[in-house]
Amino acid sequence: MVPVLLSLPLLLGPVVPQEAQAGRYSLTYLYTGLSKPSEGYPRFWATGFLNDKEFFNYDSESRKAEPVGPWRHVEGMEDWDQESKLQQAREGIFLETLEDIMAYYNDSNGSHTFQGRFGCELQNNGSRGAFWKYGYDGEDFIEFNKEIPAWVPLDPAAWNTKKKWEAEEVYVQRAKAYLEEECPGILQGYLNHSRHILDRQGTHRGLRLGAQGTS
Ligand SMILES: *[C@@H]1O[C@H](CO)[C@@H](O)[C@H](O)[C@H]1NC(C)=O
Ligand SMILES: *[C@@H]1O[C@H](CO)[C@@H](O)[C@H](O)[C@H]1NC(C)=O
Ligand SMILES: *[C@@H]1O[C@H](CO)[C@@H](O)[C@H](O)[C@H]1NC(C)=O
Ligand SMILES: *[C@@H]1O[C@H](CO)[C@@H](O)[C@H](O)[C@H]1NC(C)=O
């Protein structure tokens, strides 16, 4: 279990895109990669949230996606071996992107942080939302605009990333389909198995995450 690195700049705004609200559910993945992990920290870790609750984590040392908290007792919600393989593949792409950025800035030996946050939300009234963005050293780096659809560079180095991630037309379509179809489908399946955990806890206590729009 990896504690949040307090020394890291808080990237990409709040982890969970909006305040918990009745009938509103979100699935959020938060990825962090460190070029020079200090002792006790992995090079890469991923955390999954349902609303503001962490439900699984993965890191580059265990290489295993494992449910946490009440989700350890939810049967049949996810195939955790498959999920581990998925996270392993995403770790590879993620760290390769971090290396590309450092190479762009001629600082392949430097100490840098890369973070990604993406996910989707469903509301009982049928409304949907989704988001996918990355940050480098605490600054916005690139984000996906699913209406265009395209990756929008927010940093000079991100033009190369965009080129790579849009090398084939189908990549952009896949990213759009992931946000608009696959992610909500996964969220729906998770809710079918564990909505009671989220509803039982009602509005969260103490942690005010602030509102932030989704597109
Ligand atoms: C990196 O180094 C190359 C070769 O020295 C130089 O052309 C380029 O402008 C440098 N890039 C940055 C972002 O400083
Ligand atoms: C990175 O560090 C290694 C060992 O300290 C050194 O040999 C290499 O030249 C450095 N590379 C860059 C790009 O600074
Ligand atoms: C669903 O409710 C939210 C606020 O609770 C509202 O912003 C949104 O427009 C509604 N969507 C539909 C399809 O009614
Ligand atoms: C979730 O449950 C609903 C209603 O029982 C069902 O129609 C739907 O197929 C389920 N979805 C997933 C992804 O399991």
From TrEMBL:
Biological process annotations from GO: antigen processing and presentation of endogenous peptide antigen via MHC class I via ER pathway, TAP-independent; antigen processing and presentation of endogenous peptide antigen via MHC class Ib; immune response; positive regulation of T cell mediated cytotoxicity
Record carries keyword Signal: yes
Signal peptide feature range: 1-22
InterPro entries, per the entry: MHC_class-I_related, MHC_I-like_Ag-recog, MHC_I-like_Ag-recog_sf, MHC_I/II-like_Ag-recog, MHC_I_a_a1/a2
GO CC annotation: external side of plasma membrane; extracellular space
Keywords of the record: Glycoprotein, Signal
Domain MHC class I-like antigen recognition-like span(s) in chain numbering: 23-198
Keyword Glycoprotein: yes
Family (UniProt): Belongs to the MHC class I family.
Protein name, entry field: MHC class I-like antigen recognition-like domain-containing protein
Taxonomic source organism: Prolemur simus
